[in-house]
């Protein structure tokens, strides 16, 4: 469709050519409907034939451009045998995700993004928290400005990569607990960040395939990647919306949220590594309170937050200086300030603790000073 509108039969033929498998009509129709619902494609009339064809929308073209510019130019594709028949039969989206994973493993080169080729909606010259976080995690989906900002903070706080990994591990443990122990099957993940290994829907659907997840972020690059790479299990569902947490109503009223999640049933609200980017002037406590108020009893709030509590004064001074000059600054909060987000909720053991201490797996783990963040999970309404 990047070359112009395509009729259904032409799309089907191209999928057969690309995958070597013949997709079922039901599968292809569902895929096209989902892409249309996400606003990536639309149907148009072909005047010369009086028939209809599928075409990319402006958002779809932006998504394709974002994915193309972040592809590994010149890297060797994985052998065809690395894709199982089952993965290939599921269609090009699943195959593409697996190929991307194998390609990442087969090359150590960092994906460099030419700033002059960035889509108009993506400002590559300004660091973005999600892309900087991706850099700390060892990802490739970031620009030079993000890497420079990440290195500036790493220079004064060498544990930043450990802190990023601990934050990610906390999220995964929380999702596993919510799915396996609390019986949660719905997740609203605000501040999604760029896709990486073991995303929320993958962790949840591994335990409960019917789990449903809505991802929310305000970076077009994040949403472009999410739509391309975050594929749900057959029984479950995933959706993706571009919205700003500072406008909770735009999230709660979004049709994708209402269509994917049953807001009358318990769900988990995930706000991981997000609220420290909301300054006091924007009243983050009111934001959390509004979102929590929209959830039924039996739901959960999962939250992680940067803190300076375990750091020495010299590190704090140097980190503060770097924080103000390395992209969007974060607002560290104390344990007492983090506790305010959970007012009126029932904290799940072990309460508000260092990221690395929340229901940690056995074995050595980083210190509180290395993790530099708090994590907690709380239940909305009465305890069972």
TrEMBL record:
Keywords, comma-separated and alphabetical: Methyltransferase, Transferase
Residue ranges of the region described as Disordered: 68-129
UniProt keyword Ion transport, yes or no: no
GO biological process annotation, one example: methylation
InterPro entries referenced in this protein's UniProt entry, alphabetically: SAM-dependent_MTases_sf, SAM_dep_MeTrfase_SAV2177_type, WH-like_DNA-bd_sf, WH_DNA-bd_sf
Compositionally biased region (Polar residues): 70-87
Xref: SUPFAM superfamilies: S-adenosyl-L-methionine-dependent methyltransferases (SSF53335), Winged helix' DNA-binding domain (SSF46785)
Name this polypeptide is given: SAM-dependent methyltransferase
């Amino acid at each position: 469709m990047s070359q112009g509108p395509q009729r259904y039969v032409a799309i089907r033929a191209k999928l057969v050519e690309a995958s070597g498998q013949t997709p079922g009509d039901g599968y292809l129709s569902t895929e096209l409907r989902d892409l249309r619902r996400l606003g990536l494609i639309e149907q148009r009339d072909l005047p010369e034939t009086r028939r209809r064809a599928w075409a990319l929308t402006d958002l779809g073209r932006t998504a394709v451009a974002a994915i193309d510019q972040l592809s590994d130019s010149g890297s060797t594709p994985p052998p065809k045998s690395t894709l199982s028949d089952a993965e290939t039969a599921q269609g090009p989206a699943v195959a593409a995700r697996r190929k991307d994973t194998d390609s990442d493993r087969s090359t150590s080169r960092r994906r460099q993004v030419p700033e002059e080729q960035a889509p108009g909606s993506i400002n590559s010259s300004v660091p973005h928290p999600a892309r900087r976080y991706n850099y700390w995690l060892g990802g490739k989906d970031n620009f030079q400005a993000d890497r420079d900002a990440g290195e500036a903070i790493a220079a004064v706080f060498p544990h930043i990569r450990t802190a990023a990994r601990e934050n990610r591990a906390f999220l995964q443990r929380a999702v596993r607990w919510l799915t396996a122990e609390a019986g949660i099957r719905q997740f609203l993940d605000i501040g999604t960040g760029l896709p990486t290994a073991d995303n929320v829907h993958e962790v949840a659907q591994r335990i409960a395939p019917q789990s449903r997840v809505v991802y929310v972020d305000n970076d077009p690059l994040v949403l472009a990647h999410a739509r391309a790479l975050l594929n749900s299990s057959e029984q479950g569902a995933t959706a993706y919306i571009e919205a700003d947490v500072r406008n909770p109503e735009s999230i709660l009223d979004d049709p994708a949220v209402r269509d994917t999640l049953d807001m009358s049933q318990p769900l988990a609200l995930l706000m991981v590594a997000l609220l420290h980017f909301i300054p006091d002037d924007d009243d983050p406590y009111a934001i959390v309170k509004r979102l929590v108020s929209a959830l039924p009893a039996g739901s959960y709030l999962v939250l992680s937050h940067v803190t300076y509590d375990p750091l020495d004064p010299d590190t704090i001074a140097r980190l503060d200086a770097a924080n103000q000059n390395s992209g969007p600054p974060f607002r560290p909060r104390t344990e007492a300030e983090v506790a305010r987000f959970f007012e009126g909720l029932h904290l799940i053991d072990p309460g508000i603790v260092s990221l690395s201490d929340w229901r940690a797996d056995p074995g050595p783990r980083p210190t509180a000073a290395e993790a530099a963040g708090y994590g907690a999970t709380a239940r909305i309404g009465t305890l069972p």
